[in-house]
Predict the structure.
Amino acid sequence: MHPTSARMNRRELLGLGALAVGAAACGGSTGGGGATASSQNLSGRKIEGTLKFYNWAQYVNPENTKAYEAATGVNFEESDFTSNEQLLTKLQTTKGQKTYDIIVPDADHVRIEKDLGLLMKLDHSLIPNLKNLAPHWTQLPYDPGNVYSVPKDTGITGFTLRSDRVTAELHTWKDFFDFLPHASNLTVNFIESPSEVIGVALNSLGYSMNTDDEGQLSQVRDLLLSVKPYVDTVNEVYINDFQAGKIDLGITYSGDGLRIQAARKKEGDIDVVAPEGKSEIWIDNWAISAYAPDPVAAHAWINFILEPDVNAKEMEYNALEVPTPASYPLVGELAKNPLVVFEDRILNDYEILFTTPERQNTRQRIWNEFKAA
C-alpha cells in the first residue's frame, strides 16, 4: 500500500464530505439545474492546431506544455487570470465567443459556471485516462462523475515568510494580521483574490470565511483597512520576487510557498505556514469553455495530463497533490510532505470557499475599499 492511500480515504470522509456540507450551508447547488452546454460532436474530428489556455500564472509545468506540443503538433497559447472572480467575469463577457479552450476554475466556480452554461460537457470517450483518477476524485459534490471538470490539484491558502527577516512566531491567521503593524520595515504581499484574502481575514477573527453576518463583515473590513498601510503589494504573480528575496512575508498558496522554499534551499530562510485553526482548502480543476474554439485539443490536453508520469511532473512543479495516485511513487519524498499530503487537522478544520452573488458583491465592495485605501 502506498503511504498516501490511507490519507486519500480520510480526504473522502473528511475533506470532501465537508465540501458537501459547505455547499448546503451556503445555499449553493452541488448539481445541475441551470443552463448547461453540451459538448460538440467530436467523434472522429481532427485535432486543431492551437490550444488556448486561460490559467493562473506559473501554474503549469513548461516541460509538460512542450511535451504536449511535441506529441500533438498543437501550438500552446497561454494567457493568465489573477482570481476566480476575474475568470468568471471573462467567461461571462466573452460568452458566445471562441476565446478560451482550457480554463482552471476552483470547486466553487465549477459549480457556478456550469450552471451558467459557461462550461462544456466533457466527452469521456476522448479522455480514456480518466481511469487513472482515484475513485473519490470522480464523485465530487460540485461535479459528480466529472461531467464538466477533472481535478487538477488541491492545496491550501497559508503564508510564507523569510525567517531571517520575520522574527516573530506566527502560527495562526490572528498572529499574521496582528503582526502586520510591526512589519513597516518588511515587504509584504497579499494575493489578488478578494474572496480568499477576506476569507482568511475572517478566519483571523474566529469567523467562517463563508459568513454572511453583516457585523462580522464590518469587522473584517475594518481589519483590512487598518493593515493596508503595511501591505506593499497586492499581486498574484509573486513567486519570482519571493525567490529573489524581494518579499519578506505574504499570503501564498501552499504549493507556491514550497516552490519558493525549494528555490532558496541554499539560503534556508523560508518558512511555509499551514495556519493552526481555520484556513482555506481548495481544489482547482481542468475544464473546457462552452465556446472553446479547439475542443479536441482541449480534451487531448486533459487526457495527456492524466498520464501518471506527466502528472508527476505537475506535482513536482506545483508542489500540490494531483488526483492520479500512480503519480505519487514517482515524486518520492514530496508525497510525504504534510504541506502536500495534508494532516487530519487541515482536513477537519479548513474550509472550502463557497460564494453566492450577494456574498461575492459584498466582498468585492470591501476589497475595492481595501485596494483604494
